Structures are given as C-alpha cells and as structure tokens.
Amino acid sequence: MNDMKNLIQRTLSGILVIAAIVAGLLLGKYFFCGLMIVLMLCIMKEYFRMTMGNEYRFSQILAMFAAVTLFVLTFLYMGFNLPGRLVMLAFIPIFVVMINSLYVKDKTDFGKFAFIYTALLYIAVPMTLTNFAVFRFIGAYDGVLLLCFFAIIWASDVGAYVFGITLGQKYGKKLFPAVSPKKSWIGFWGGLLLAVAVAVVLNCTGLFRYPLYHCIIMAVLMNIAGVYGDLIESQWKRHYAIKDSGSVIPGHGGIWDRFDSALMAIPAGVIYLVVLNIL
Length: 279
Prior knowledge:
Elements: H1 2-26, H2 29-51, H3 57-80, H4 91-102, H5 113-129, H6 131-134, E1 135-137, E2 140-141, H7 144-168, E3 174-176, E4 180-184, H8 185-204, H9 212-239, H10 255-259, H11 262-275
Antiparallel strand pairs: 1-2, 3-4
Helix pairs in contact: 1-2, 2-3, 2-5, 3-4, 3-5, 5-11, 7-8, 7-9, 7-11, 8-9, 9-11
C-alpha cells in the first residue's frame, strides 16, 4: 500500500515538475531566464547545505550572486546582443568571492571554501550553457531544442528506473556498487534504449531539427553524461550519508536530485553541437 502511495506521489509531483519546465521553456525567453535562475539557486543552496551547512554564509551568498551574474550576462549576450566583452564582467563577483576569503576571521574550516568554487564550476557553468541551446541566433529565442534535451534526459531516467526495478535488481551486474548500489547495467541499457527511442520520435515529429544520426549520437552522449551526473551526486550524498539533497519535490527529494543528470547531459549536447558548428 505504501509503495503504491509513493508511486502515485512520485508520478504526480514528476508531472508537475515537467509541466513547469515545459511552460518555462515555451512561454518565452524571460520565463526561461527566470526558471533557470531559480533552478540554479535551488541546486546551489542544496549543495551548500550539504557540504557547508551554515558556515561562511556570506561567501555562499556571494557565490550565488556570481552565478546569477554569469547567467544573466550570457543571457543578455545571446538574447539581446550585449557586447561579448562585457560577459567578462562576470569574473568580478568571482574575484570578490576569492578576496572575501581573505577577510574571514574564523579559518578553522577554511578548506570548505573549495566547495564555493566547485559550485560555480559544477552548477553555475552548466546552467549558463543552457543559453546556447535556446538562442540559435542572437535574439532569436527557441526553447524547443532545450526541451528536446530534457525529454531525452527524462526518458533516460525513466528507462533506467523501470528496467532497473523490474530486471536490474534480479539479473546482471551492478553499474557502480561503490557509489550507488541500486543502479544496474540493465537499467543503464534500458535508459539508453528509451533515450534513443525518444530522440528518434522527436526527430520524426520535426521537433529535434537535426539529421537523424546527429540526434541518435546526442542521445547516446547525453545518456552517458547523465548517468555520470547522477553518480556524481550519489557520491556526494553517500559521502555525507544523506538520502536526498532536499524535500522540495514529494517522492523525488530535492531539486538537485532531479537535475543531477542535466548538469552533465545538457552541456554534453551543447558542446557536441557547438564543436561540430551545427547549433
């Protein structure tokens, strides 16, 4: 009975999250900007709560401000033709974060400042790269590509969950038992299969507007990157002996829990398109 209740709760909350993402991406660039900033700050907050707690709160806030500055300046560059040289202003808040560390009186846990810089690289930079997925030309917003990316990531997660629960726990080897004991190779292949299938369907419907082989390659790359993203967060949680990064989403945990795959998968898709000059 409890399992069924948890499944229903997980499904309903998952649908609400998907609906919010879809709406944020399709309603226009301002909604996209607001959505990404909120997600980025929520993930950073959960990450800091796990790694730093209430220590160096002012530095945490400075890091969040630096992350928002980086995202907004990139958004203005891609969406409003802001001169590219001005994007470099985003480094100023980052330098302020570094300088601020000199004036912290209690240096007992000074090593924790490394988490500040990690958050900027691990969370802020990937979230900022989403700008390159929604602006194909300067000022021309189109959230469909990023929505396709999310659809592939969701398909990978669903496939891995379904195949992992039904077959992976009984048959085959574990994927990475030292970090995430429940993940299996069967779940991985199930996630990959569904991710590729969704990419093919999106291509056939005209939403994923690239040659089919590019769509399949991106689905494979994003699936692999997403699995690593999931494992990276699992390693953090295992180190700090916690189950979820938060409790914002009933049945799922925190925002970070739901977007851990995206932090690696979306950059993988963007980098692929940029390197091949087909974005």
